[in-house]
């Protein structure tokens, strides 16, 4: 039976703290609730935290997979809805930046999931570290998070330009987060386009706007960041819309000449 290749989406940003982990987790949860099989790779090697946002402490992490002591499936943390999280490694200075061998081991390990998942979401560490660049190149689809903070906007434009020149990526999804007014996402998109100037090959697509959630900002309990329990909130509805938008259409096409495209490459090569 022919199975559909998984989509691999890297959630990235120029500036840190713009909500990548929060959005990755909740986008994953929303897609899972739509019946999709979703895994999240916490690729913030060094300060991984997505599993903590989901309310769990992992027994095993991706570093155990890279050291060959367990399979990728054995690291899974599962939310009650069935979203699978592959925990990143915390406080392991030896593995904060991955070597080329690590990256290739990681891609091999993730390829084991071909046929088991529809989506792999990669929560990157943000910025242009070699690890992030490798993973983004391999992912095929990139979603850049930007907020109304002027620094975040300037960094997003620089970041997109850098990925465009260093990885040859031409299509970017943009997610506007922490907005405070109704059409602020569109205004931010216009400002971003303007900063980037005219480039007929560069395609930015606004995939969704997520409002600033005051209740969440007030909470100290980070397990409250899972929005599936608050379906009636404006934030939950916008996360649901984001999942539907992404599920309808891919963000452009993979960059030409990149490295192995994780599962898609395996599948198109008849790997499953
Ligand atoms: N829409 C939102 N409304 C209110 N608070 C938010 C929103 N999005 C994210 N946050 C909060 O902003 C903070 C930063 O979010 P998060 O850790 O997801 O960012 P990040 O981009 O992953 O950061 P880092 O670059 O450090 O990995 C968290 O406290 C999170 O709860
Ligand atoms: Mg993060």
Automatic annotation (TrEMBL):
GO terms for cellular component: cytoplasmic side of plasma membrane; cytosol. The gene is ylxH. It comes from the Bacteria. Signal peptide: none annotated. This is Flagellum site-determining protein YlxH. GO terms for biological process: negative regulation of cell division. InterPro entries: CobQ/CobB/MinD/ParA_Nub-bd_dom, MinD_FleN, P-loop_NTPase, ParA/MinD_ATPase. Keywords: ATP-binding, Nucleotide-binding.
